[in-house]
Amino acid sequence: MIIITNPFAISNEIKIIHSLFEEGLSFLHIRKPDFSEAEMESLLLKIGLEYYNRLVLHSHHQLAKNLDINQLHFSEKERNSIPVKPLKSIKYHSTSIHTIDNFNALKHSFEYAFLSPIFPSISKPNYTPKNNHFERVKERSNFDTRLVALGGITAENIQYTLENGFDDVALLGTIWNCKNPVKKYIKCRKIAQSF
Known about the structure:
Layout: E1 2-4, H1 13-22, E2 27-30, H2 37-46, E3 55-57, H3 62-67, E4 71-74, H4 76-79, E5 91-97, H5 100-104, E6 112-115, H6 133-136, E7 146-149, H7 158-163, E8 168-171, H8 173-176, H9 181-193
Parallel strand pairs: 1-2, 1-8, 2-3, 4-5, 5-6, 6-7, 7-8
């Protein structure tokens, strides 16, 4: 199970991030689209060095080298302009896609790809699926890259999602739009780990 940060700064964010890692979170995607490079660097420096191997940067990729972060995420637009071979010590860790056809056609070696939105988004109003991804996932031909469901994932639909063609789930609104993100993570992780 993967967590993506809230796009905006939230109160006690670093404390929550540390607690999530202490509870065993494997990967935290740092997605702050409106952060300047200085704001991003400041945020990253507040996260303990011991957790850098579990961070995946969505923007300001140039910070990765100096901060010893070796996992990068690429949007659809960025994916079309990246070199075929990654820089030394940097992995093209993940990417975003919106159709199973795009997933099947991935040209780079990504560990996983987010397909979204699977359900109506919790964090983005009016962001709903345009296709029935559960029907289309039956057309999957790419088994080199893990397929991760994103968008509207909750404790109530994790089981259904994992039983119907997805390798993993990513959480954003479910975690950050609740009173106790760590407790919610533990609940969702328990469901996801039962598969």
